Amino acid sequence: MKKIVLTGIVWLCMGVLSANVMAENWLAHIQIQGQEIKGMFKNEVTIGVQAKESTMDAPPLPPSYSCRMYLPSESWMEKFNQWIRSDETKNQQWILAVNPHGNYGPPMDVTARLSWDPKAFGPGSVVLKKGWQGDGEILADMKAVSAIDIVGSNMDQYLTIVYEAE
Q: Which region holds residue 63: left if phi is over 0, alpha if psi is between -120 and 50, else beta?
């Protein structure tokens, strides 16, 4: 009888520990959509928190595109389309380089739509801020809204996603 109770307690503890670990892990896909053209007019990056950090290089640009987005590395020498951070720290930041115009069309400001699923993020707060240092104006509470418009010409704008776990 003691063996059965002890086994049950061990399984219960394993389940609680697993649930706590799983709650910290998440992946979110951020999309941008520009003017619909025959070339690239949609782009996606993936961010998240997992046990092990990983990245995936962004593919090269096609000849014609109406928007683009990537995650610059900390050294600014590499461009990623996926950056999964290690769950070793509670607070994380990702810089987004967003070009709402691309190399298609006349040199004027255009609008591209940046979107995401607010339910994809882990427990805590997630905000999108202007600039690359993480201390700019808050553009969106990413758990309260699912999209914002980005206006600009053919040049990168920098935004920061700031995640603070509970």
A: alpha
